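Worked example 3. Consider a protein that binds FE2/S2 (inorganic) cluster.
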Amino acid sequence: MTDDLTVRLVAVEYGAAGINRYRFAPLGDEPLPAFEPGAHIDVRVAAEVVKQYSLIWSAGDTGRYEIAVRAGDRDGSSSRHLHHESVVGSDYRISTPRNNFGIDAEGTEHHLFAGGIGITPLISMYRWLTASKSTVRMDYWSPTADRTLFRDELADAPGVSLFATAAGSAPRLADRIPGVPSHAHLYCCGPPAMVDEFDRLTADRDPALVHRERFTAPAVDRPADAFTVTLHRSGRVLTVPANRSILEICCEAGVDAEFSCEEGVCGACEVKVLAGAVDHRDTVLGPAERAGHDRMMICCSRGRGDLVIDL
Ligand code: FES
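Given these inputs, the predicted complex is written out as structure tokens:
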């Protein structure tokens, strides 16, 4: 984890059934770095456990960072640790905020699709877009009303539809997305199956209007070939074998490369690509960003042939 800082856990609150809210404050007088809706931080939850959590944006409080964590979710040991072992007053190492899921402020209409704990970046976007008087709609699926985070705020909020999936009668993404006008921006965060479905349902839309965030890396079953990577700043040429990553090879060669999750979800290892085509295997970049072949995550993405990168 790079660019990190130390913060103090100053509050743990009930958010919804099985979901707690954690608030961190700076140790000294320096305020924490500002961030925009959609940003996340890496949290070193335990010695060997670093996880990504979306920051909950609140216009009124820039002095704190707040995250929400669902017990027993995909993060396994990190959520268990935070739910059962965190103590108010203890210190945590975190990264500075990183935003791979920003709002396109030029857009005139925004539709947000949240599933479960995926509400955390989207509530921030909803608040920001509402405050800036943009046209915004949000659909939020959670199992039951008592497992709906921010329910008090969202139950009667304009443009928001809450769906309880346990009732069995909730509409599906496939019922909602076709009704979104073609000029609108769409954003999705939720369980992997939901984001897969979102990608399928938006595949024929303008990629620049489609945004989603995942916090788990899908399995990649494409074969990998060896290639060379030229490090533009030093001119060094490194060979990346089929079973190794660019990041591993760079670290082994003593090159100073940033990284955190090492599985293509956090964006810490992003570098500029100066020449060559990329086999993107991360979950950070959307379709439009991938098409440019001008940036890549070196912890997992590979060259379709040889590459020159800005490192
Ligand atoms: S280290 Fe997290 S995306 Fe590469």
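Take a moment to read the result before moving on. Residues 259-262, 264-269, 282, 284, 297, 299 surround FE2/S2 (inorganic) cluster (CB under 6 Å). The CA atoms of residues 43 and 278 lie 29 Å apart.
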